[in-house]
Design brief:
This protein has about 300 residues and is of the alpha+beta class. It has twelve helices and nine strands. α10 packs across α11. The protein is globular. The two termini are about 20 Å apart. It binds glutamine.
Length: about 300
């Protein structure tokens, strides 16, 4: 941990005042209210050592990072049958694209683009009586964190302006790959994306993807080894939409971004690290987050390659 700590401190100081690049997401109006100077990092290793710096304990809107958690729960419930409803191929398209759905007959390319995450939301809505409550308690139970919650403000703000997601959901339903009422599915999706967590919360909750022996609060495994391998593989190939190749190329770890400016990255068998900086590049990924992780894996020689 001492080596990681020193390197994290050095890169943090080097990048702290670099803030002239990128733009905070404001297509969901409530996200635009965040202070764009926020910058935090937190790492948790599989032997439960941890270190954080900067705004690592401030909660923010995790947005698409939540798609890992909904995928995890749906995978647990459905097993391999899940892949009949959503594919595992990189889309090479923006996260909110409708384009490939027509030729793919309503089967989204992967569970991390919005189309795929909406199908996953449909699966969870069909499974639970109170999907929002049950999903939240699943998340709280993983790392024994009772402080997790949705932001009703962010969820309502996206509900008012999320015309593209509404279009995606209706379009997929026209192919028969949404089984439940679209209003219910979208309400779940918007709430899931509005989850608030800090870098510390995130690097603790996703340890189950780094540690084969991770047990949740109740002493149970979250995923089998094979399932964890598969989710890591989808993160590596699809976690950054049409910038997934670039993230693998520069950082070399499975990861997932969100338009709130967070990035989670996993080193299987070593650690989970999270960076938060709200200014995004044109592909919707945190500019400084990517830069930080590129420097971190280079200096610590800890990419998976
Ligand atoms: N809620 C956001 C949306 O659907 C999530 C996108 C993201 O974080 N990439 O647009």
């Amino acid at each position: 941990m001492e080596t990681y700590k020193k390197i994290i401190e050095d890169i943090y100081l080097e990048l702290k005042n670099v803030d002239d690049i990128g733009k905070v997401a404001n297509y969901i109006p409530e996200l635009g209210n965040v202070n764009d100077k926020n910058f935090g990092i937190h790492i948790t290793t599989i032997d439960k050592n941890s270190f954080g710096i900067g705004d690592h304990e401030k909660k923010f809107s995790i947005q698409s990072i939540s798609k890992i958690l909904s995928l995890t729960l749906a995978y647990k419930l459905e097993g391999e049958a899940l892949w009949d409803r959503v594919d595992v191929e990189p889309s090479g398209n923006p996260f909110n694209s409708l384009q490939q759905l027509e030729s793919d007959k309503g089967i989204p390319r992967n569970p991390f683009i919005n189309a795929g995450a909406i199908v996953i939301s449909d699966i969870l809505v069909g499974h639970f009586k109170n999907p929002k409550e049950d999903f939240l308690s699943f998340c709280k139970g993983i790392s024994n964190n009772p402080t997790l919650n949705y932001s009703e403000k962010v969820a309502q703000s996206e509900k008012k302006t999320g015309f593209r997601n509404k279009a995606l959901c209706n379009f997929i339903k026209s192919f028969g790959n949404i089984k439940n009422d679209t209003e219910k599915v979208l309400d779940f999706y918007f709430h899931m994306c509005s989850l608030r967590m800090s870098c510390k919360d995130l690097s603790e909750i996703f340890l189950y993807l780094a540690d084969d022996n991770f047990l949740c609060q109740k002493g149970k495994r979250i995923l089998t080894e094979s399932q964890a391998k598969r989710i890591n593989a989808i993160m590596l190939t699809c976690g950054f939409y049409d910038e997934s190749g670039e993230f693998a190329f520069r950082v070399g770890l499975p990861g997932k971004s969100g338009v709130g400016g967070g990035i989670v990255a996993i080193h299987p068998d070593k650690f989970c690290i999270t960076v938060w900086s709200p200014k995004l590049n044109v592909k919707g990924n945190s500019y400084k987050g990517m830069l930080f992780l590129e420097k971190f894996t280079s200096k610590t020689e800890s990419s998976i390659f």
